[in-house]
Amino acid sequence: MTSSSVPRSEADLVERVRVLQPLIRSHALRAEQERRVTSEVVEALTGAGIHRMNVPRRHGGYQTSLRTQVDALSAVSAGCGSAGFMALIQAGCAFIASLFPDEAQDEIFTDPDVRVGGTLVPSSKAVPVDGGYLVNGNSPFATGCQDADWHLLTALAGTGDGPPEMVWLAIPMTDLKVLDDWNVSGLGGSGSNTVVAQDVHVPAHRVLPVAPLLAGTFPSRRNGADPFYRMPVLLLFCAWTAANALGLGRAAVTEFGERIHRRGITYTLYERQHEAPVTHLQLAEAEMKVSSAELITADFVGLIEARAADARPFTAQERARIRAQCGYLTRLCKEAADLVGSASGASSLHREVPIQRIVRDLNALGLHSFVNPTANLELYGRVLSGLDAGTPFL
Q: Are 264 and 272 a contacting pair, CB within 8 Å?
């Protein structure tokens, strides 16, 4: 693992990532072909300090402001959607790992550049045994698992009486197997394979109950009073996934803006696409959609950071609105990419042309259950109508 020095400032962290964009972009096609982010990009991002953003300062991390995290993850995503998605999942899972009991954190964060992956699909079972749990089952959609050091596996734990409890279990990747089953049409380079636990013993201090966490309670004593770690994790995931959409949307507009100067419109009199009025309308509308998505993100990121500063709790309506905003801005970025993609001509179908991959990546992001625009709008509409949200995942 490559160690990184502490950036001089948060802006320096973003600049480090932006410097890497040519490398990230040049490896995007290969990542899709190999169905995982290339080792060169993984090491470069590690060296830039991207994995330290949510690691506690006492373990060498940065505890980077949310606004800067969005900027950094957007910069990665603009180069490659799959690399950006892997980076956001690992950033988020490092945050969750910081909520585990302190003894577990001391094991996980032996290196501040540790890569922590995880899922929130409770398809495994954890059976209580002496000193912890015995875990068995498959955990699909484990983004970046082949390059992770730890995995936060979600399981249903037997409690003896009553229904099982959903828990996160921190497990070294060396204790898990990986099924090489990630072969998809969007975010294809994210390496979101299935990990398998077979009779894995997890000590009790490496267990984090999910329900209390969603209610704002977690066992870390050292981080319990830190405003940084009091930010609601599910709202943070709205910000992190927004960064993926923003980076992809911005990349689509940028690529189209460059491409229209290199090609004409076949079977018309336009030898250069940028001279056609229809192109002006397409480019302007795509730009407005992405700019609107950026403004929506700035709105709810500002709210999350303000709440962290003043320690006021979120209302159910605010939480539902942020989820709706996450889905809606993703839809806007997808619409922008679809627009410029459809205007890019048949030559853009070639795998080496970024626009077609951006379109597919944004479609995949919008299918994520937590991001899905339609589902999130319905959830927000329920709350606006005076009904219960119908889900604890707010």
A: yes
pLDDT in tens, 342-385: 999 999 999 999 999 999 999 999 999 999 999 999 999 999 99
Fold of the domain spanning 10-108:
Butyryl-Coa Dehydrogenase, subunit A; domain 1 (1.10.540)
- The pLDDT assigned to 234 comes to 96
Token pair of 349 as six digits: 């179908």
Residues 156 and 164 sit within 8 Å (Cβ to Cβ): yes
Instruction: Supply the pLDDT for residue 2.
Output: 45
Q: Which two tokens stand for residue 146?
A: 């082949």
Q: Residue 5's pLDDT is what?
A: 53
Distances from the Cα of 108 to the Cαs of 36, 56, 208, 228, 332, in angstroms? 23, 11, 14, 19, 38
Predicted pLDDT of residue 7: 55
Q: Give tens-digit pLDDT for 304-317.
A: 999 999 989 999 99
Do 287 and 250 contact (CB within 8 A), yes or no? no
Residues of the chain with pLDDT > 70: what percent? 98
CB atoms within 10 A of CB 272: 13
Query: How many CA atoms, within 13 angstroms, populate the side-chain half-sphere of residue 10?
Result: 14
With contact defined as beta carbons under 8 Å apart, do 242 and 290 qualify? no
Q: Enumerate the H helices of 311-353 as residue ranges.
A: 316-342
CATH 1.20.140.10 describes domain 231-384? yes
Q: Which residue has the tokens 């209302």?
A: 315
d(C-alpha 144, C-alpha 153), whole Å = 13
* Residue pair 78/250 in contact by the 8 Å Cβ criterion: yes
What gap in Å lies between CA 322 and CA 235, rounded to an integer?
A: 7
Alpha carbon 128 to its chain centroid, in Å, reads: 31
pLDDT computed for residue 158 by the predictor? 85
Give domain limits for the chain: 10-108, 116-209, 231-384
Question: What pTM, to 2 d.p., does this model score?
Answer: 0.96
CATH label, 116-209, candidates 2.40.110.10, 3.30.160.390, 3.40.190.10, 2.40.50.140: 2.40.110.10
d(CA 80, CA 188): 11
Share of the chain above pLDDT 90, in %: 95
- Read out DSSP for 128-152? EETTEEEEEEEEEEETTGGG-SEEE
